Amino acid sequence: MSVVEVLTQRAVHHRHPGWPEITPTVTLLNGGRLRLRPLKRRDFRAWSDLRMKDMEFLKPVEPTVPSTWSEAHSRLAWWDNVSYLLKAARQGSVVPMVIELDGRFIGQLTIGNIQHGGISDAWIGYWVYSGVTGRGVASAACALGVDHAFRRIGLHRLTATYLPSNPASGRVLAHSGFREEGFLKRNLHIDGKWMDHHFVAILADDFSTTAVERLILDGRLLR
């Protein structure tokens, strides 16, 4: 069964939609194998190592940390962060995933503020280690996250934001089908100051195909 058939056929989990589940694996153009899998407590070392290496890339685009970058990536900070995320995941409000490339931790993707019922939406966010950029990793991970949100969590709407100074992130979101819905003035505190963001969204019924299938048809993934 293909990755597209898997995403299309599986039913939404009745109790904790989309958690804890591993997504199908997709193949990048260079042959790399990528998937999303649930965040685990033992991911601390890989998480800390990569984010410490990438401070110059991540700090300017992420919410302001209340301490030093080193303190924010200590074992104590990780324990507080992962404990909150896993509790929220069990309650169904967050789905925190690891982006794995050929079995290696190379980033994170989070589906947050999950709401069902009359709203049925959430936001999606991600970061990818700079050492693997330029290979289509972020686009593939985002597509898997979008399909997981719609096909497994059962959402109707997914939103995201990106900085005007980070158009590459906007292109990644566009590859999955996100469209511009607005411009938010000074809405998030990033790297010590309030910053504007582009606001984008996608609906479950915007496309008849999965985001992964669209990347395959666009020549960004191998079938």
Task: Pick out its properties.
223 residues, alpha+beta, Aminopeptidase, eight-stranded mixed β-sheet, 8 helices, 8 strands, 33% helix, 29% strand
Give an overview in words:
The chain is an alpha+beta fold and 223 residues long. The chain is built from 8 helices and 8 strands. The chain has a single domain (3-217), classed as Aminopeptidase (3-Layer(aba) Sandwich). The chain has helices at residues 3-9, 44-53, 55-58, 69-72, 75-91, 137-152, 167-175, 211-217; strands at 26-27, 33-38, 95-101, 104-115, 121-128, 157-162, 179-190, 193-203. It has an 8-stranded mixed β-sheet, with helices on both faces. Helix 6 (137-152) packs across helix 7. The longest helix has 17 residues, at 75-91. The radius of gyration is 17 Å and the shape is globular. The termini are close together.
Strands in their spatial order, largest beta sheet? 1-2-3-4-5-6-8-7
Distance between the termini: 12 Å
Outline = globular
Number of helices: 8
Q: Please, what is the CATH homologous superfamily?
A: Gcn5-related N-acetyltransferase (GNAT)
- Biggest sheet details: 8 strands, mixed
The second-level CATH architecture is: 3-Layer(aba) Sandwich
Number of domains: 1
Q: Unreliable stretches, pLDDT < 50, 5 or more residues? A: none
**What is the CATH class name?**
Alpha Beta
CATH topology: Aminopeptidase
| Elements, N to C (H/E) | HEEHHHHEEEHEHEEH
Average of per-residue pLDDT values:
94
* Helix proportion: 25-40%
Give the strand tally: 8
SS-derived structural category: alpha+beta
Supply Rg. Answer: 17 Å
